[in-house]
Specification:
Layout lengths: L9 H23 L18 H20 L10 H4 L24 H22 L3 H31 L23 E4 L2 E5 L19 E5 L2 E4 L5 H9 L11 H10 L13 E4 L2 E4 L11 H10 L7 H8 L6 E2 L26 E2 L2 E7 L25 E4 L16 E3 L8 E2 L3 E3 L1
Parallel strand pairs: 7-8, 9-12
Antiparallel strand pairs: 1-4, 2-3, 4-13, 5-6, 9-10, 10-11
């Protein structure tokens, strides 16, 4: 977790932390702003949570791990909320079934907003009094980054909710893209191998905030490789479909072949049967062939790579390449009303390796596991990342609904190989 420099006066550091807290918390309300109360209670599958649950859970996180743990005289707002809005922290108690969160008509959206206001008042007062303490500041920063993760989920989850509705409602109104036949030619850019270091250094204050699963910084051995200069596009993926990609067993991993046959997958999630339209947060629209393909599983990405005579990059390969470039791209930023909220075609000449940050989370070929010497956070917060290091694949780079100030080269996220509802895409790599 991040720490606060000892050279900063306590009052100034605490005031800045309060301001940051208010900024992040307000962003959640802004993202929920276009939604009616009825929109915020729907759950369309187990992976999707209702918007109001995200608003409540992120509040519970601050109440439980900041106020209850560090303010002895604090009395919980409603003890029942510790059961309803606990996500997966079994060391602090049992929780309501994740798959049934959509059954909770109560507390209402209004009651949850009241809960947020009450906890915000208490947290701001607490930070004002103790925000200069490094451990408290680090815990607040963890909570804020946790909330930013749920802000991304608010958008990806409501997209699935609206897609499931036959009316096809839009999260917001938007303009169709301007057709353009130009696409940056795909090529592979050579990258040097050797003994390299990846990961974040928990003792380096200059590195800023990072999650525990990004540590420790450690040495890896990487062979010379080549990285695709851009993400795989919709047009290229349609070519894969039209050439029998979903019916050619030799392209697929065994689990992937079983998955697509069981689920009858034959196109990315949110694509129409005609392969010409896709559902977006701005409703149904024509597919931009030059934009990155998204909402595909690891299995589909791996099958395409086989079809293309290439492979997916490993986690170390991706990070070593990304560290050469600034964090820039189609990421979420203020004002949100102007953010694309969808993967965009590559603009400009596109020299070097492009689109490393934003647009889509990029599947890698690496299983999600612990780095050598990994130590989870102490106490219940050790459940945040460590216990999920099994049967999932690493994704990198953030997406079009990831905050610009939230992503970095060392950031590790993870999904099950069958997952598609997130903005998930990929690029190709090759051995040299």
């Amino acid at each position: 977790m991040a720490s606060v420099s000892s050279s900063t006066p306590a009052s100034e550091s605490a005031a800045r932390l309060v301001q940051r807290y208010q900024q992040v918390r307000e962003a959640s309300l802004n993202l929920a702003g276009p939604l009616a109360p009825e929109d915020q209670v729907v759950q369309t599958m187990a992976d999707v949570s209702p918007t109001k649950w995200h608003l409540a859970h992120t509040t519970w996180f601050f109440e439980k791990f900041l106020l209850c743990e560090h303010q002895p005289e604090y009395q919980p707002r409603d003890q029942r909320f510790h059961y309803l809005f606990n996500s997966y922290y079994y060391t602090v108690g049992e929780m309501f079934s994740r798959a049934n969160r959509g059954l909770l008509s109560r507390p209402t959206v209004g009651e949850i907003l009241d809960y947020r206001r009450a906890i915000d008042d208490a947290v701001c007062a607490f930070i004002g009094a103790r925000g200069d303490e490094p451990d408290i500041a680090a815990l607040v920063q963890l909570g804020l980054n946790h909330e930013q993760q749920h802000q991304e989920l608010i958008l990806t989850d409501i997209k699935h909710v609206f897609f499931t509705n036959p009316l096809g409602p839009a999260y917001r109104e938007g303009d169709l893209f301007a057709p353009d036949e130009q696409t940056l030619e795909h090529e592979f850019i050579d990258q040097p191998g050797g003994k390299k270091k990846i990961g974040a250094d928990p003792g380096d204050e200059l590195s800023g905030f990072h999650f525990d699963n990004e540590t420790p910084r450690h040495q890896v051995l990487v062979r010379d490789y080549a990285m695709g200069n851009r993400l795989v596009t919709n047009g290229e993926f349609r070519e894969f479909i039209n050439n029998g990609g979903y019916s050619t067993a030799s392209l697929w991993l065994a689990d992937g072949w079983a998955e697509i046959r069981e689920k009858s997958w034959h196109r990315p999630l949110y694509w129409a049967e005609d392969l010409r339209r896709e559902f977006t947060l701005e409703g149904w629209r024509e597919i931009d062939d030059s934009a990155p393909v998204t909402h595909v599983s690891f299995y589909e990405a791996d099958a395409f790579a086989s079809f293309a005579g290439a492979r997916l990059p490993s986690e170390p390969e991706w990070e070593l390449c990304a560290k050469q470039y600034p964090v820039d791209g189609n990421l979420l930023d203020e004002p949100v009303t102007r953010a694309p909220l969808h993967p965009q075609r590559l603009e400009g000449a596109g020299h070097g390796v492009n689109q490393l940050y934003g647009d889509v989370w990029e599947w890698t070929a690496s299983n999600y596991g612990a780095y050598p010497g990994f130590k989870p956070l102490k106490g219940s917060l050790g459940e945040y990342n460590g216990k999920f290091m099994c049967n999932q694949m690493v994704v990198r780079g953030g997406s079009c609904v990831t905050w610009h100030d939230h992503i970095r080269a060392t950031y590790r996220s993870f999904f099950y190989p069958k997952d598609r509802w997130q903005f998930l895409g990929f690029r190709l790599a090759k051995d040299v």
